[in-house]
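Morning. Coffee machine broken again, so started the prediction first thing and wrote up yesterday's gels while waiting. Chain of 75 residues, entered below exactly as on the submission form.
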Amino acid sequence: MNPMKYEGEDLPNIITMVVMPAEAQKDVCNQEDIGQQKYANFVEERINTNEDSICARMKKVQLKTWKSARKSAIR
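Came back before lunch.
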């Protein structure tokens, strides 16, 4: 089962069969779209318009993962 192409409602862990929280499932399943959006922003801001230097640090996107979603559920 490929999580990036999963069409079901709940995304389970392949080994434990524990269902991934909804907010983490959204980020995992849409990782390709998120990456393409970040790439398009990079090209627009740094290459096409020179708003930022091409060498300036990029802001990280805080995506939910299985591990981070599980930590927040335990607390």
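The chain has three helices and no strands. Going to sketch it on the whiteboard this afternoon.
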